[in-house]
Amino acid sequence: MRPQIAAQSATVWGMGRIEKASAVSAMSKQGPGSAAHSAAAASFAALLSKLDYLSESDIEDIRKAYKFADEAHLGQMRHSGAPYITHPISVAGLCAEWKLDAQALMAALMHDVLEDSGITKIEMAERFGVTVADLVDGLTKLERLEFDNREDNQAESFRKMLLAMARDVRVILIKLADRLHNMRTMGDMPRDKWGRISRETADIYAPIAHRLGLNVTYRELQDLSFRFLHPWRYQTLSKAVASARRRRNNLVERVKEEVLNGLANHNLYADVQGREKTLYSIYEKMTEKRLTFSQVSDLYGFRVILPKLADCYTSLGLLHQLYKPVPGRFKDYIAIPKLNGYQSLHTTLVGPAGINIEIQFRTTDMDVVAEPGVAAHWLYKADDPTSEHSQKLGAQWVQSLLDIQQETRDAAEFWDHIKIDLFPDSVYVFTPKGKILSMPKGATLVDFAFAIHSDVGQHAVAATVNGEPAPLRSELQNGDVIEIETASMSQPNPAWLSFVQTGRARSKIRNHLKQMEEDQSRVLGERMLRQALRAEGIAQLPEDTETYTKLWEKVLRFTGNKTRDDLMADIGLGRRIASMVAKKTTALLIELGSRPDMLLITNVRFTQPTNETVSQGVLTLDGSEGATVQYAHCCSPIPGDKIVGYLGRGEGLAVHTDECPTGKRLLQRDKERFLQVEWADEPTRAFESKVLVTVDNGKGILARVAGALTSAEADITHVEMGSDRTQVELRFTVAVRHRRHLADVLRTAKRTPHVLRAQRVKPKPLS
Predict the structure, then answer these.
(1) Is 112 an active-site residue?
(2) What is the pTM of this model?
């Protein structure tokens, strides 16, 4: 019955946007009686034979999806000459082996329909439901978008795939099945495509399969990538393994028999499976350890599957008595599972004829997770798809991808974050309460803090490792017990970006810094606009209320900004001139019946200097402005200096002394971008100033001068030393409160023995 239904699938129905003429033409070449059509029907019949775990109604839905895909791909052929529909059928077959549900199999059958046939997502949703359409859309490549290079295209495609996976994990499983079948049929592809596709498979898809616990798929993708990336090496190694197999053809059976008998003597009954290592794993070991093939000893692996957890440890002890263990080659992934949920005991033993053999011990449940993959039993276990256990397995990595995605808008940056997390060598550390966390090798205490919780990372100020204080940039070591200290007022330090290793920590820090800069720019812009309005006689900035809705709409049309907050941020960053916005706002207020306060205008003008060069109100600075206000390094202004402010385009406000040559040059070139600034009566922090101290050359002179500066309550942030035979020039950068404090510091330095001169460094006049 099933083959008969498949044989009728070439009838033209519901063509959507497919041209019927071309379909009829194709059908004349690929009719129901053709060999190509028979091959497609046979492969679909093979798929149906794998669906015994689904209901009859689900199978009927899958038949409809097959008919739809068959018609959408009518006339299309693969490089092998087979009908194109055989590829989606094979992909669906792989998904069926993972026991995915009917919706996933329908999406697998139609995964290329949106891309290749002109069918729209809406049409698909009307026929098969929104869920199936979303799955197919998540798998569709972004051919209509243009990118500067292939790397951007790859990054954006991968990003879209993961976004779809965020809504439904089945997307990534179908994508892996699609890539696996393409790799299996790579020999039919043009040879010039082998390298790119195989490298992409090795770098992206194989690691994803590994992280999701699809270990069989992971190993096959690695082997196929190796085969097509290095054909000659693959063939050579394949022949060497075949030759070794002939010489040791009874080894696997002998070891299985000895292991079974050894366990049975102690009333332990197990399923023992033996296999050769994959060619890729052998090649990888040869490459990493610089070995020849003859030097690779552990070509064989065995899996011992037992009923109970305690049996695994008992069997391990028994086999260590049967064969000698290789020192340093034991790993316990049961007590500390891998990130993807994998659990097993690993040991390497010296087997018959002195040949090393690797043995893995696990329970039946562990084997279900380890081989078909945790993802296959994740959300779609037939018995209990909503169980808490199946929901949690593997979810940690997916959640980290979602966190990064929410805070990263640039595709290339997102791809950089993900690449960091795709290839981890794990380090296992403990919280003070004994919880084990697996972190990538090279991760730091800051990475650990963000792994605990975003708030812990953002407010981290110190840490202890094994009870001892440690810098936050310290790398994690296996077995460390780590405690993070936080402070509510603390914020992420931009310097953390230079050493954090995990994508989660990096994206959280970058997102916070971007948000902080935007917030500070917005506050500064609002202050500048308020003061510019005062210069126009308007005492208050119009509130963002219904009364002034139309006014702000007109102001935003005038400036080209989308929102009021965007406008304030642009003013703070120097992209908009506050005085121009103030004049426009004043004109609109006058239209609404407001009148400028002439007394306020007079007061503002009276407080400005006679050589009027600024066009905005006076801005008061106290050092708390943040990243949007930069105190220029060329002149290092400190409270007490006369200062001016320059609004760089997109760079915020730069503060110079009024005598600074750089500031004067900017004033001549860009006069309208200057505004009047002044110091607050009580600045909130110290400011850096440069000091030159000339001394007689002598032993310990630097320490004496540094001690003198420190005794005057000046913090030294930088020092340089230049000398000849008799005199030494010491250039200090010191943090002082104001000009009077700096004068006290210089007087203290001059009184120090062997000091000849002490003076503030000022910029040289422009020639």
Answers:
(1) no
(2) 0.54
